[in-house]
Amino acid sequence: MPVMEVEGFAVPMAAVQRWMPLGRDVLLRGDRGSGKTTVLEALLADASRRGRQGMLLRSSGSGPLSALLDHASVPPRTSDETALTAWLTEELAGRRSLLLIDDLDRVDAGTLAVVRRVLARTQSVLVATTTVDPLRRPTAAMREVLADRAPAEVRIPPFGFRGVANLLGAVLGAPADAGLTASVMAQTGGNPRAVVALTDAARAVGALDRVDEMWVDAGTLDEVPVDTVAHVFLSGARTELVDALELLAGLGPLPAETAGRLVAPPLLEELVESGRVVSLDVAGAGEMVGVAPPAVARAMRERTSAHRRRQLANRVDAGVGSAILPQRAQEDELSTVLLRDTVGDGDEYWRWTAELAGLIHERAAVEESSLRAAWLEAPSLRTANAYLALLMRRPAGDQLRTVFETTRPTECDGPAEYLAHGQYRARWRGWEGASPEEIDAEIRTCGADLTEFEALRDLKGDLLAQLQEGADPEVVVAAPAAASAIRSFRGVDVVVRAAALLESGRPEHAVRVCDAHDLADAQPEPRHYLAAVRGIALAMAGRTEEAERWLRRMLDAAYDAVDSLGIRVHACALAEVLLHSGRTRAAWRVVSTALRLGPAGPIETTFYRRGLTVGAILQAQAGNVTLAQVLVRELDKTPRTYHPLLRSMRVLAHVVTVATEGDAEGAAQTAWQAGRRYAEEGLLQPALMTWAGGTVSLTPARAEYVRDVLARTDIPLVEPYIQLLLAVSERDVDAAVAALPRTDTAVAPQLVRAGQELAGPERAAPGVVLTGPAAVQPVRRGSARAEPLSAREREVAVLAQEGLSNRLIADRLHLSVRTVENHMSRALRKLGFGGRADLLGWREP
């Protein structure tokens, strides 16, 4: 596979090639197996194509001059330093020749002495790789080579989702589905050599299946022997380092202060520097450390004998007393790293997310093991429910079936345990693909009164039907939260009401429901879901900046708590908002964070599927059709939840991918039919989004239907795209010109391009401020003109038009920032604008 085709190699290649024209040496730093050698080979090939002299030396043991003597080009009988120096000087005599050295820290001292003399005699640029910090742990010979060279340092980041997907496709000879890609990435941390090692091991033990020309996880990837992965990272490591990893892996993530009392600080520091131990600040617990990547931790645990485990347990008992957790300054927030426009040569994003995924995977494995042990000891409904709350976050099909089939109620189990267990069973069966009738028949045997469960299950459908029939949304907003003695049910009705209002096309009402209820005493799932619905509703209401701030705050809080559910939910929701804002690169980085956590189980399916949809749309629009198809296939095979909180918009991922493949007509027809089905169910917001994303062809009857749906909603973010869709279908040039400035090519490329073609190159383009007749605001919801602004809204709009921030406007008008945000949101909505930038073309009446 060409090196530049892999996501993980593009960054270091580009960074090295920026330094080389300046004559600056470069030191490539990366983990074992990260692809350092591959990058060097690509640089050598590039130098050859450019007619530039180059030489690649590799470590060949500790013998004197071994790296030079083992080179294929060394002349016969050239064995002493003088002759080798003369030979290498001649090989690099050209201007700006290139000397590449792989594993500089492992090359013998004699070879490096020759290299020092040759570099002094030639104009060669040195590019070398290393796994050690050149300022902290260089070998003596390495230090001498670098002493006067002052090289630039470039980091090789782990692969992201696309890089792992490409690599798996190359290794397996056919694409891997998204679930397999995510699982491999989570276990290996994105290290390419570890990816290959784990894949080979999986194939050797039959853990992979090939279905419809695509490789999938057969359900046993977590049980594949990972000794080969451990060798990738630990071959050649000192015994004391391996012993320290064995101890830390057996304990799972633990406070850094405790780890420092069990492992000598210099050893722990060396493990952190090498990436074998990662640390993260956890809210309420301080700094936590764990072994990375997860496959290494699992390998160390599996290799530990029972006798050795007892020895380690005694060591822990003797060495750890009551630990006082240190207070440390908070590092950069996760969302800051994800959304940073300019990343360093090592691409900090990939390092952060690889470490995060590894720590989450390890923490979940340890917690799950503890809960499983408690359930095995006493398999009651109570212990089963505690185990299921964690186990159902991943696709543990066989384990879940075992829990449900072997758990038996005990006299200590009350009505709450019966009902909670019945709810888990219903969600599991729905995730497996059982029909509603099969699920109902099974859960009625659970021995609990299911009235409350059934009411919650049917609530969203009832609300959508009522709103479809003309019910006042204010009644839905004002409804009090239902009281429940079952903690897992608390707050669920609030989340469902907010989701129903959002998908019926009333995002502002959905936001008000979210703001009116505090779910502090609810379980994590409804709390995270309500926060995510609030963020998406804010975006749909045209308040995209506020939505981004809110979801970033939620994501950062989940990161601080190392909360896998929260990270998945809020990363997927934030990616969706970024996609609607036209920030596609940031959206892919954020959704990759969620995908890196691995495939979801019954509990996390809603936002996992929405994340797959966002990812497929992003990759299809970027021209990466193969990866988009992989994500769409994962969507198709992922079991639908029995009653999903929000629709996954799976059809939109299909439509965009098919259109990118060249079947625009077929995609448009699919989009129309799917949108019509959504609208008939009262899901007006998904209907409008599907029609706009699919660039459907509207006959007069269809156009009238779309206008009717639009008139029954108030979705400022979507409205300009529907107005543009209508304009394109009806060949209304003025309407297209009016709508284009409030659209973004990155959001709906086919539709916007069609609008541009209709308007012509001289009349409009997305984001362009228009004057004259074209600047007339588009008609909203069938009204004759835009709704008039209040005096305060007009003041805020005028000051924003002058370029003042919300903070400055608040100071000028002696208001709170929140009040200014509310006035701004209402003003933009009344004017039909999608954002503050549209105010540049507004003229105050």
TrEMBL record:
Domain HTH luxR-type: 782-845
Gene3D superfamilies xref list: P-loop containing nucleotide triphosphate hydrolases, Tetratricopeptide repeat domain, Winged helix-like DNA-binding domain superfamily/Winged helix DNA-binding domain
InterPro entries: P-loop_NTPase, Sig_transdc_resp-reg_C-effctor, TPR-like_helical_dom_sf, Tscrpt_reg_LuxR_C, WH-like_DNA-bd_sf
Top-rank lineage group of the source organism: Bacteria
Name listed for the protein in its UniProt record: HTH luxR-type domain-containing protein
CDD domains: LuxR_C_like
PROSITE patterns noted in UniProt: HTH_LUXR_1, HTH_LUXR_2
UniProt keyword annotations, A-Z: DNA-binding, Transcription, Transcription regulation
Protein's GO biological process: regulation of DNA-templated transcription
Pfam families (UniProt xref): GerE (PF00196)
Organism the protein comes from: Cellulomonas triticagri
Gene Ontology molecular-function annotations: DNA binding
